[in-house]
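Changelog entry: the Signal protein record was regenerated in this release. Current contents:
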Amino acid sequence: MQSGDIISVSFRPGMFVLSFILSALGAYVALEATSKIRNEDGGLRVGYVLVGALALGGVTIWGMQFLGMAAQRYPFAVGYEFGLTFLTFVISVVVAGVALWYVGKSAFSAKTCIVSGCATGAVMAGVNYLGMDAVHTQGVLSWSVLGVGASILIAAVAATVSLWLAFNVESEAQRRTASVVMALSVGGSHYIGVLACTFIYVPKPGDSGLILEGAYLPYVVFALCLAMLGVMKLQLARAARVYQKRLEVRMNELLESRDTTHPG
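Regenerated structure tokens:
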């Protein structure tokens, strides 16, 4: 390969599928957390907002994008700049948390959902391109304005759809279907963004700074994301049991009070 050659875009099928699986699992946990995000008085439960932010931003969005970048085939070894990669994770979680808080802080409305979805989608697209910039390859990127615009539009639609689903699904079957829809939406935004750029081979000297690399790195990220989702799922189940027990105690107290007030 010579300098200036265009690197064709192709993906490893296994990693491509894993990126959607991880995104769907993250969306499922995020939906479960969001379903309990408001308490009986209409206030927000901060713990559930945090779990939702980590699942939606850290796994559904960031995890999917990271595995999506790892799914792309290169004719040379690639690495990931730690600083930028970690920054994209933080931004994804914070933006997801703010979006869930903004939509959930009052009664659900289409207006707040659309406003938050568009803003979140724009940031999500930015994180996607920032993450691509964190990939260290022997090449440079040339962007298609039309493709970039399409990816941003899809990201805005994906974020809006995700927020709407997060606050409107009720049954277990709906949650499973919605998690797949969210994964497809987020994945569509990422892969359209990848196709919006042209990779041009340009040999580069060794990079300075902390560079993450290794053939098994994407699988490590996948495993860590699964572990994080597992811990959050267990925490949600524990919180549900505690809430159910507290509700039963409250009901018993009300019944006892009624029996005392109206004997016989």
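The radius of gyration is 22 Å.
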